[in-house]
Give the backbone structure.
Amino acid sequence: MTISKLFISHISLIFAASFSMYTNVCAESIYTTFEEKQDKFRFIESGTTDIDPDESVADSIQFALARNPQISLAIAQLDAAKAEKFLAVGKFLPSIEGTASYAHEDWRSRSLETLNQRDGATLGITVRQPVFQGMTGLHRLRAQKSQVRASEFSVLDSKSQIALLAARAHASVTLANEILAHRMSNRALVKEQLEITEARMKAGAQSRTGVEQARMRFAQAAVAVEQARARKSASDAFYTSIVGHAPRKLSVDLQSMIATNTESLDQAIVYAINNNPSLNAARERVRAAQFSKRAAYGNFSPNLNIEGNFFRRYDQGAITSNVDEYQIVARLRIPLFSQGSNIANLRSTSSETAQQIARQNSEKLSIVELVSRNWGEINAAKRRQAAAKKAIEAAELSVHGLKVEFDAGKRTVIDVLDGQRDLVDTKISLSQADFDLRIANYELAAAMGQLIHTATKTDAQ
């Protein structure tokens, strides 16, 4: 009985240590998940109260992040990766199973009469503790940790992509509003010029041809207004689908959304390579594949397990007696031939590693191209802005001079209308340059992994 008590005590210590390690890991993960969900709920609540009448880009991003199902999908994939990590941790823990049996002489044939002494109940417990698994378990655990980190970066990447869509929608609505305002202003000016021309015709100072030309330009201006309204409706619909509500009064503060660490193109590229969430996720998938490959090598190694068994038999013979049986066995298993499964698994993991490395390199090239393209677009948009502002100044002076010359009879009405059309076109060019600059800045910030942090920081301020 003393030896059996020692055996039970030894098994209990192994189980307690393993269970303590497992519960600590589980508790830490559950607490982290609970904190993440609490932050998510607080984030959603903060996004649905105290609505500012002037909705900034950061506000639109916050609303979009609080409702988009793609983020929920990424979070679910992260939870699945954490569950796989728990499964990998479990490979280090003992497996414990209990058995119970009962036999009676009336339940067997006469030929088994020699087993009368085993009549009665038997209770048992079996413990198997992995000791050495050829480093397979350790590498699998490391692979699952990398998969969890990859899923975390994927969640961040999903948020970044949704934030970029929201920023694009905000900029598109702003551009559509500005174009509609320019077109409506132009229509009002053309209408005013048409009324002046009609009055001059009644006074005999204007030909019928000039009036018809003015009416043609007024009809063209009306068509342009309707086209601008259609564009605004499309932009509003896109905004609503991303953000979750129709656009309110929008405000634009481009300086708050500009990416930092962009003193030079090389610096921006280096920062993006180190911080882009999609590229970081690709790196973690490469690490996971490499650890899985190392785990596959472990399938060729021997495994050592310690197995312990304890049974208590309650015999029902002529003299009732209880018997305790136990044993501890160190069992070494050496794989000799596994139907080629270990070789196939190694080849599969090697191919998966090569694929993940190729995807990482492709993603890196895409990030470099994206940063370089938007860097050039920012500089080009700034030059277009400066040129458009100068063109507006010149067009305004030109329209003023044309009106004076028209009143003096030196210019026709079509000259004045051409000048006004040029002025509207230059104003729209400036709005388009502003839009291009915003989009390039948003895409650069997203490529550098800063759009989410910038929007959150701006919203907090």
